[in-house]
Design goal:
Largest sheet: 2 strands, antiparallel
Oligomer: single chain
Order of helices and strands: HHHEHHHHHHHHHHHHE
Structural class: mainly alpha
Helix content: 55-70%
Strand order of the largest sheet: 1-2
Strand content: under 5%
Number of strands: 2
Radius of gyration: 21 Å
Shape: globular
Length: 401
C-alpha cells in the first residue's frame, strides 16, 4: 500500500503543478506530505498494530475530499517563477503601528512566562530520560496567548522587508532577536517551523525563487529539525531507539506513532460524539465547557500521543467527519490562496501562518485542534480585515536592498 500512497502523492503533485506551475501551492504541499507520511507509516515493521482496511480507507478518502474541496474553488493561477516583474505592496502607516504594538505586547508576554519558569537557557538543561519541554513550560492563563503569537509577529516584520519597507535593519534585527529568544527560552520545534516555513513562503512568493532552491531549503529544514529533536531528548529516549539508526529513528518515531494512534481509535469502534467533543474543541474552550467534552486518547509506548489532523473528526463523526472537514479545509485553503494571489496581498500573511499545519497534518490538527492553535489564525484574519486595502506596486526588477 505504500506504493499506492506514493502514486497518490505524485498524482496530486502533477495535477497542481500543471495547473499552477507553483511548487509551493499550499493544497499541493498538504496532499503530497499527507500521502508520503501515510506511505511511511503503513509499513509494517513490527512496532505497531497493522493498519486495518478501514484505516486505509480513512486516510485515502480524507485526502481525496481535501483535493475535491481544493478544486471546487480552483482558479487557474499561474505563478511565473523567475519573472522580471514582481508585485510589491505599499505598506501603510497603520500596518507599522500594529506590527510594533504586537511585537511589544507579545514579547512582554514571552518574557513574563520565561521568568515564571526561572529564565532557564534551553540548551543548558540536562533532562534525564525525558523531553526538556516540561522543564520550560511556564504558561500563564491569558498571558500565554501573547506568547503563542510572538513567532507570528515575525511574519508581519518580514512582510515589510519583502515589500521594501523602511527601517530594514531594525526589522531584520527584530526578526533575528525573536528567533534567538525562541531558541534560548524553549527550543521549540513548533516555533522553529513557524519561522522557517512561514518566512520562507513569504520570501518565495515575493522573490520567485526556483524550485531547486525550494527543495534545498526543505532539505535544510528537515536536517535542522532532526538535529533539534536529537538535542531535545535524552539518549535513552525511545525516540532515538525505535530503529537501529538514530537518525532514521527520529524521523520514523515522529510520523508512524501518530497514525498508530489513529489506527487504534478506528479499531476501538467508539460511539459517535454528535456534539463534536474534539472537532469543536475551540468552541468548548470559549464557552467554558472544554473539560466536559471527553475525548478518548491513545498513545504508543506511553510516550507518543500525537495524532493525524483527522483524528478528532473520526472520533466524533466517523467516516462522515473525515469526508466533510477535509473538504472544508481544502476549500478554505484554496480560497485563501486565491485571495493572496489575486486580491488583497495581506491575505498572504494568513497563508504563511498556515504553513506549519499544511506540512505537518500527520502530527496534529494545527488548524482547529485547540483554541491555542486556532487563535493565531483568527487574530491574523481580524488584523487583515482592519487594515486598509493594499496598494500594489510592480517593479521591473526587485531592488534587494
Amino acid at each position: 500500500m505504500s506504493f499506492i500512497f506514493i502514486l497518490l502523492a505524485l498524482f496530486y503533485f502533477l495535477f497542481f503543478w500543471f495547473r499552477n506551475k507553483d511548487i509551493m501551492n499550499p493544497n499541493m504541499i498538504f496532499l503530497v506530505f499527507w500521502n508520503l507520511a501515510c506511505a511511511i507509516s503503513c509499513l509494517d515493521v513490527g512496532m505497531f498494530s497493522p493498519w486495518s482496511d478501514l484505516m486505509y480507507f480513512v486516510t485515502i478518502i480524507s485526502g481525496l475530499f481535501f483535493f475535491i474541496g481544493s478544486v471546487s474553488n480552483f482558479q487557474s493561477i499561474k505563478i511565473k517563477i523567475g519573472s522580471k516583474k514582481v508585485e510589491k505592496v505599499y505598506i501603510a502607516k497603520k500596518y507599522y503601528g500594529i506590527t510594533y504594538f504586537l511585537f511589544f505586547i507579545c514579547f512582554s508576554c514571552a518574557i513574563i512566562e520565561w521568568l515564571n519558569v526561572g529564565a532557564p537557557i534551553s540548551f543548558q538543561i540536562d533532562s534525564i530520560g525525558t523531553d526538556i519541554k516540561a522543564e520550560l513550560d511556564g504558561a500563564i492563563p491569558g498571558v500565554h496567548y501573547g506568547t503563542i503569537f510572538f513567532p507570528y509577529v515575525s511574519l508581519f516584520l518580514f512582510f515589510i522587508l519583502m515589500n521594501n519597507g523602511k527601517n530594514r535593519k531594525v526589522h531584520i534585527f527584530m526578526i533575528l532577536f525573536s528567533v534567538f529568544f525562541s531558541i534560548i527560552s524553549n527550543l521549540s520545534r513548533g516555533e522553529l517551523l513557524i519561522y522557517i516555513l512561514s518566512l520562507f513562503y513569504l520570501y518565495y512568493r515575493f522573490n520567485r525563487i526556483s524550485k531547486k532552491m525550494s527543495l534545498i531549503t526543505l532539505g535544510i529544514t528537515i536536517t535542522m529539525l532532526i538535529v533539534v529533536m536529537i538535542f531535545r531528548v535524552n539518549t535513552e529516549s525511545v525516540v532515538l531507539n525505535m530503529t537501529e539508526n538514530v537518525y532514521l529513528s527520529v524521523f520514523y518515531s515522529y510520523i508512524a506513532p501518530c497514525f498508530a494512534n489513529m489506527n487504534d481509535l478506528i479499531n476501538s469502534d467508539l460511539p459517535y460524539h454528535l456534539y463534536g467533543n474534539a472537532s469543536f474543541a475551540p468552541l468548548w474552550t470559549i464557552i467554558g465547557e472544554h473539560s466536559q467534552m471527553k475525548v478518548v486518547r491513545f498513545e504508543q509506548f506511553g510516550v507518543f500521543n500525537a495524532t493525524p489532523y483527522v483524528y478528532g473528526f473520526y472520533h466524533d463523526y466517523k467516516v462522515y467527519g473525515v469526508i466533510f472537514f477535509p473538504f472544508v479545509f481544502g476549500y478554505l485553503v484554496s480560497k485563501i490562496y486565491s485571495a493572496s494571489v489575486l486580491n488583497s496581498s495581506y491575505w498572504i500573511l494568513l497563508l504563511a501562518a498556515l504553513q506549519k499545519g499544511l506540512y505537518l497534518s500527520f502530527f496534529g490538527n494545527y488548524f482547529t485542534g485547540e483554541m491555542v492553535l486556532l487563535f493565531p489564525f483568527l487574530f491574523i484574519v481580524i488584523i487583515i480585515l482592519k487594515l486598509p486595502k493594499s496598494k500594489r506596486i510592480e517593479y521591473e526588477s526587485f531592488p534587494n536592498k
